[in-house]
Amino acid sequence: MLQRDMADYEALSAANIENYIGTARIPVGIAGPVDVHGDHAKGRFFIPMATTEGTLVASTSRGMKVINECGGVRVKVVRNGGIQRAPVFEFETIDDACNFNTALNEDWSWLVPIMESTTSHGKVLNVRSWQMGRIVCVRISMDSGDASGQNMVSIASQRGAQELVRKYPSISRYRMGGGLSGEKVPSNINSLLGRGKAVTASVTIDGDVMRRITRADIADIPLHQQNYANFSMWGGNQNTHNSLANTLPAMYIATGQDVAAAVESQRANNLFDYDHKNEKLHWELHIPNMTAGTVGGGTALPTQRDCLELIGCYGSGKVNKFVELCAVAALANEISFWGALCAHEWIDAHADLRNR
């Protein structure tokens, strides 16, 4: 299924690459199976992951085994934050900037038909602006449908910015990149106001299952999490996860996503509620913003399409299903990774593989 030659890519990748000379072949492995009870992803899935990091697929599969023996994982897209562009406008006086900022925040509805006229799919969700001295940054949010949508929203937002310049002659200059879009950077504003989809995966793990599969004492998981979170806060880390930077890029490469979008999608938190009496750990992984698509970009390239079709996520109407499966894979690897840490097996597992 995944064996493709250069000719397949050369014919289909004109919109994805310039000066084409070949393909970088990254091994694709299959993690799973995993039992999923999502709003969009329902059933048993094998998850494709493209990576050169030994143990990643094995670790994710081990976490999935824990999930399966505990009744499967519940997963839900809890918010559509849209995709953002943030043009910045400069004024001659702070009064002009203030008047513009106030007027736009009070009524931006007139911009909606102007921006939506540039696309047959995008819908304006929100327009908000912030003033800093004589400068105002406008954050435009649009639902891009099943596409990742950066180009779609860029075109629509530029059209909106041009209309703002026409309506407000006090604008002295503007540029399209104002810093509040949250694109391809870890960003507080993405976590709070949304970018892409917010998704939560949840499982209740039995202590006996965790001990048998990972050899970790389940009571140690929330204790270690507390230590990790406390010292991460000292270090300026605003997450409480260990491994999304492994899992998401592997899935993104396999399925034709914009890999750089994984950077903005890596804000995540592990949430624990430990039932000491019954030795059960309720574990949730919340990802407040994940940017992905099942149409456009690199999704139609041969191997990438194969991988999306493997999980039933190629084409329109599938982006929420894909996001749910990304969260499930991320949670599975978190379970295995934390288990390896608490069982003192993390370093040995990598060393054993390297020495084979």
Summarize the entry for a quick read.
With about 350 residues, the chain is of the alpha+beta class. About 40% of the residues lie in helices and about 25% in strands.
What does this structure look like?
Helix 2 runs antiparallel to helix 7, helix 2 crosses helix 12 and helix 9 packs antiparallel against helix 12. The mean pLDDT is 92. The protein is built from 13 helices and ten strands. 41% of the residues lie in helices and 25% in strands. It is α+β, with helices and mostly antiparallel strands. Strands 1, 2, 3, 4, 5, 6, 7, 8, 9 and 10 form a ten-stranded mixed β-sheet that branches.
| Helical content band | 40-55%
Going by helix content, strand content and strand pairing, the class is alpha+beta
Summarize the biggest pleated sheet. Answer: 10 strands, mixed
Order of helices and strands: HEEHEEHHEEHEHEHHHHEEHHH
- Indicate the proportion of strand residues: 25-35%
Compute the number of helices.
13
Gyration radius over CA: 22 Å
For the terminal residues, how far apart are their CA atoms?
Answer: 28 Å
- Estimate the mean pLDDT confidence: 92
Low-pLDDT residue intervals, each spanning 5 or more residues: none
Shape: globular
Please tally the β strands and state the result: 10
